[in-house]
Amino acid sequence: MAVSHNVFRGTNSVADFFDPDKNPPLPLVEIPDRLNPYRRDGVRIYAKMLTHLPAQNVKSLPALKMLREIPEARDNVIVEASSGSTVLSLGIIARVLWGHNNVNAYVTNKKPPESLNLLRLFGITPHLYGGLAQQEPTDETGIMCRLRRLVTERHDTVYPGQYDNANNWKAHEQWTGPQILKQLPETNIFCTTVGTGGCITGTASYLKSQKPSCRILGVFNVFGDATPGPRHFQGFNTCGFPWAEHVDTFVEVPSVDSYRMSMHLSREGLIAGPSSGQALRGLLDYIGQLKKAGGLSQLADETTGEVSCVFTCSDLPYHYLGQYFQKLGADEFPPIQNKILLQCDQLRHDERWILDPPQALEMLRRPTTLDKKNETSISSTSLSSNLEATPPPPTLWSTLRSCLSGVLTTSFSPPANRGPPTTCCPTHSTTLLLPADNTTPLVLDLRSPQAFQTQHIPHSINLPLAALTPELVANGDLFGDADAVHAVWSGMQALFAGPQVAGLLEGVKRDGRAVVLVCYDGDASRLGTAMLREGGVEGFSVAGGGGGGGGGLFL
Ligand SMILES: Cc1ncc(COP(=O)(O)O)c(C=O)c1O
Q1: By its UniProt entry, which Pfam families does this protein fall under (predicted)?
Q2: Closest residue by CA, ligand 1 atom 14
């Protein structure tokens, strides 16, 4: 019986959550007319959302039933030949039931690394095998036969064996079939994809036993064109499950159509992976064939006059994300706007690298080695209190020497196509607030030479960044303009890579000095700071750029 209000409590809470008998039936949702071209022909199509099982895939039910029926699995190693839904469900449910944590997946080495990592995320150990990716259960040299032999030799190991374990299909006979018929007694067609054949055999067995007129459609892969989960018909032929007496017909669907249809389903809110799209595509193809042959009305329900169809949604799309973009055309997805931003500004920004002006002033007055201990420890004393605490002006000679320290050590010459780098001026000898030697941060000013000449931080070096155009400066919203971000980023890269600046930065790094970047509003220097940090320089920017307002540092 379902628990009250869907609340699961106590020591068995999660096991109860995984127990279909303690849950409402999985949703059966009619697809929107947009996805049903036969709605006007009286065809109604419902998605059976097996994705709403707690492990979010069709194999949760067989995994639960197989484990329940092999109680010795509790204390033994569990092995299974599966890279997807089955072993994921076994791994999750074994832990839910018994706290078991030794489930091993035997997986083709052709699986993408994300699939292997998905297993590892759930604590399942992948064991890779080479050769053919999708192997036949009857192949004597294949993985399934090897595992069957393994468990005869090793008595501490159990192999549920989804391909020949009757509890695989019986799980669907016990739960999926009865749920569907109870939810939709007028079901005329049941359609699902076929992998091991568990879902189709079990569901069909129940539906046919209760409603023999119900038509069963199996959907297969096209040989050599795999949709993950289902198989191709040729391989399925040898399946030992009693499917042949229940399955009326089958169709094959190319993988590209499976992916596309599942994308459409997902976009309509029925979030489902490729095999679910394959089931719906196969169903629509079959209905199309029936309509063409004039056989649709024969299937219509006596009570409703309509043809009611159910197909299965078997898993979610997320772990196939890469394949959607390989299979489908770029024009099937919305384009990424401002794509140019993927080519620049990919480095980390960190708010701790933005100094507010009082912090910057404090830092410029102190040896950087003090600040290095903890970059967040810079005290935020107000600018005015710092001004009052200004040390006495140094001599003219020491001022000049320190003003030029950046260039004296690196024989500075102008970078190509930019204004000349300008060092600070002797006028600051009389108004000098900030001591500068090779223990205080180096200040690099990215503004134009004109702006620099008008005002700047004493001892700073002007590195004009041509990409900071007057228009951009006037606009004042660098990060609102993707092209401008790219231009500033590229310009900054070229600026920092130029031999003189690169040499200067190397020297700064060697001396353990920080670098404070200033600009018009703080945005460009934030980009520059990220770049400096990437290069191992302890860079900072100043909120607001460094100039302006009451917090301005420019003199
Ligand atoms: C995503 C997915 N869809 C469909 C199937 C087919 O189910 P069955 O094995 O019951 O035929 C599988 C089987 O693993 C699957 O993983």
Answers
A1: PALP, Rhodanese
A2: 229
Instruction: Return d(Cα 155, Cα 153) in angstroms, integer.
Output: 6
- If you measure from the C-alpha of residue 135 to the centroid of ligand 1, how many angstroms do you get, rounded to a whole number? 15
Nearest CA to ligand 1 atom 3: 229
All structural domains of the chain with their residue ranges: 4-53+172-328, 60-158, 342-542
Select from 217, 200, 208 the least CA-distant residue to 181: 208
Contacts of 26 (CB under 8 A, 6+ apart): 48, 49, 50, 52, 53, 179
Q: What is the CATH number of domain 60-158?
A: 3.40.50.1100
Report the alpha-carbon distance of residue 450 to residue 185 in Å, rounded.
Answer: 82
Residues 7 and 3: their CA atoms lie apart, in Å, by 6
For the segment 42-92, what is each residue's pLDDT rounded down to a tens digit?
Answer: 999 999 999 999 999 999 999 999 999 999 999 999 999 987 899 999 999
Fold of 4-53+172-328: Rossmann fold (3.40.50)
Does the beta carbon of 314 lie inside 6 Å of ligand 1?
Answer: yes
Q: Which atom of ligand 1 is nearest to the CA of 62?
A: 10
Token pair 């839904």: residue: 85
Q: 85 CB under 6 A from ligand 1?
A: yes
Q: pLDDT of 283-337, one tens digit each?
A: 999 999 999 999 999 999 888 899 999 999 999 999 999 999 999 999 999 999 9
Which of 48, 174, 196 gets mutated to test ligand 1 (max ligand atoms within 8 A of its CB)?
A: 196
Q: Which atom of ligand 1 is nearest to the CA of 198?
A: 10
